[in-house]
Amino acid sequence: MDARLRLLGRTFLRGLVAILPIAVTIVILVWLGDKAEAILGAFIKFLIPNEWYIPGMGVIAGILVVLAVGALLKMWIVRRAFAYSETLMVRVPLVRLVYGSVRDLTSFFDKSKKREFNKAVLVTLSEGEVQTIGFVTREDFTGMPEEISAGDKVTVYIPWSYQVGGFHLLVPKSRVQPIDLSVDRAMRFAVTAGVSMSEENHEDRFEKIASSEPGDEG
Q1: I need a labelling partner for 147 at 20 to 30 A (CA). Which of 71, 74, 134, 200 fits?
Q2: Quick one: signal sequence residues (predicted)?
């Protein structure tokens, strides 16, 4: 009986390892779709009769709005309008905090902005050999207080493993060593605590899951 229970447990864990990443991804996408449908769908219902409304219009409208904004930003007048609205946003204390944080976060995905975040480095945290992977976010401290700008420093972002978030450090350049890794591979290595770094073949991954014995201690 114990052997059957152990076999059942290993089989369950094997299935969980295979299905959990897919399930979590689907749940997040569905959640985002529901939010877009609730917000934009209500606006569409305000514009058209309810009987004309088809579920999913809110999601489609959201995609179209994003595409339209991306295309219109090539026009000078649209860029000026967004710049003016941003000026208004940063004048309100609480709104400025939220908006600034979201703006800086999304700018990491804008490849046109040549940000220093695109540089993965190895950071020595002490006089010994303790090191961690980080990402340089700033090298120019012009306009900053002297306590920050003094010395040859860089700002390094250190992501947390298996958590959302991280922290930043002001580090002497002498303790920062560039590494020959793309940001994607370095980030994957850091957030998985060194477990994963490169993309593996999908068939190979599921073959490993099928042949593994999760939870088997001997």
Answers
A1: 134
A2: none
| Residue 161 Cα distances to 186, 191, 214, angstroms | 12, 4, 21
Q: Whole-angstrom Cα distance, residue 194 to residue 183?
A: 14
Q: Going along the chain, which residue ranges are E strands?
A: 119-124, 131-138, 153-159, 166-172, 176-178
Regarding whether 185 and 143 lie in a shared domain, the answer is yes
End-to-end CA distance of the chain: give it in Å, rounded.
18
Q: Which of 161, 163, 168, 175 is nearest to 117 (CA)?
A: 168
13 and 95, same domain (yes or no): yes
User: Order of strands across the sheet with 176-178?
Assistant: 166-172, 153-159, 131-138, 119-124, 176-178
Q: What is the pTM of this model?
A: 0.52
Clarify whether residues 16 and 93 are in a common domain. yes
Domain count along the chain:
2
Q: Which two tokens stand for residue 91?
A: 């004048």
DSSP 8-state symbol, 114 = -
Q: What are phi and psi of 130, to 5 degrees?
A: -75, 120
Query: Which residue has tokens 């250190």?
Result: 158
106: phi > 0 → left, psi -120 to 50 → alpha, else beta; which?
alpha
Query: Is residue 203 domain-resident?
Result: no
Q: What is the pLDDT of residues 82-112, one digit of tens each?
A: 888 888 888 888 888 888 777 766 665 665 5
- CA dist 180 to 55, 116, 121, 196, Å? 48, 15, 9, 16
